[in-house]
Specification:
The chain has 197 residues and is α+β, with helices and mostly antiparallel strands. The protein has one domain: Ribbon (Umud Fragment, subunit A), CATH 2.10.109. Helix content is 17%, strand content 29%. The protein has two helices and twelve strands. It has helices spanning 24-53, 168-171; strands at 54-58, 73-77, 91-95, 103-110, 115-119, 122-125, 128-129, 145-149, 154-158, 174-175, 179-188, 194-195. The strands form two sheets. Strands 1, 2, 3, 4, 9, 10, 11 and 12 form an eight-stranded antiparallel beta sheet that branches. A four-stranded antiparallel beta sheet has the order 7-6-5-8, with no helix packed on it. It starts with 23 loop residues before the first helix and ends with a strand. Residues 1-5 and 7-11 have low confidence and may be disordered.
Length: 197
């Protein structure tokens, strides 16, 4: 019988090969490598964020009550002041000018060029009384302070707990080079979780 020249040659189908069992250890290695890779990437991203962007800090002391409590945990944005200026009302973390190994947290009351005066606890900025709804009546004090001119590149900082705060009334204005972050978000305790106001 002649073979049709247009038809493909017939090939016998091979019997299917039996499945090869892969040892468990060989199957686990790729999964472990992927898990380790993801862990290293996560740690690298976290380190970058902590080193360059956000730093978790613990508030020690009562000088910022009721805004921030003793032992409260917050995130400080260390990058924000490279993009925008420090403004009145910001809560900033800075190195204590008299001992830079210590860090303080206070609120910005005056910026460069401002004239600050305190009369019986009432703060005046450039001759106008400052409305401070963040200072509870319980934490106010009656101290007075003669007028201070805030020099260029410096800030006048006060704690919200006025009768328990070591601040610019005591150590003077703070140069911008000492300020390294802005308090932005509280994460502990849970009932105070949220943006720092």
């Amino acid at each position: 019988m002649a073979e049709d020249s247009n038809s493909a040659p017939l090939v016998a189908a091979a019997a299917p090969a039996p499945p090869v069992a892969i040892p468990r250890t060989r199957r686990a290695l790729p999964a472990l490598a992927v898990w380790l890779r993801d862990l290293v990437i996560s740690l690298a991203i976290s380190s970058f964020i902590i080193v360059f962007l956000y730093q978790p800090v613990k508030v020690e002391g009562t000088s910022m009550m009721p805004s921030l409590d003793d032992q409260e945990r917050i995130f400080v944005n260390k990058f924000v002041y490279k993009l925008e200026p420090i403004e009145r009302g910001d809560i900033v973390v800075f190195r204590y000018p008299r001992d830079p190994s210590k860090s303080f947290i206070k609120r910005v009351i005056g910026v460069a060029g401002d004239h600050i005066r305190i009369v019986a606890g009432q703060v005046f900025v450039n001759g106008r009384p400052l409305q401070e709804d963040y200072v509870s009546e319980v934490y106010a004090d009656q101290r007075s302070m003669s007028e201070v001119d805030v020099p260029p590149g410096s800030y006048f900082l006060l704690g919200d707990h006025r009768n328990m705060s070591n601040d610019s009334r005591d150590f003077g204005t703070v140069d911008s080079r000492y300020i390294y972050g802005k308090a932005v978000f509280g994460y502990w305790p849970m009932d105070k979780m949220g943006r720092v106001k």
